[in-house]
Amino acid sequence: xxxxxxxxxxxxxxxxxxxxxxxxxxxxxxxxxxxxxxxxxxxxxxxxxxxxxxxxxxxxxxxxxxxxxxxxxxxxxxxxxxxxxxxxxxxxxxxxxxxxxxxxxxxxxxxxxxxxxxxxxxxxxxxxxxxxxxxx
Length: 136
What we know:
Blueprint: H1 5-8, H2 17-25, H3 30-38, H4 44-48, H5 56-68, E1 72-77, E2 84-89, H6 91-94, H7 97-110, H8 121-132
Helix pairs in contact: 7-8
């Protein structure tokens, strides 16, 4: 296949699809939060669970960034004691399912991630994420 210099001159520029995608998901915690939301988490404190290095201010900033960039939708429900805020994936964010699944495969197949305490971890991880992320 011969490369198309006109097209490839865009790489690394403002029209580069890779750079544009990285601007959206390359920020620390974005993919982890999207993964958590696929797993059913929707509250601020749920996103912090198992992430000891994630501070409240960084999480708050990341959620605002994600909302501004149409990755999540914030819903605030007024309660008797305090308001309750939930976050939901947008259709745009749901389309990242293939990228997240490819990250699972890369981690297992290339980086040899395994968790020996779970029988058949790699196969179960692949199958579980394939179902969770609705990969066909």
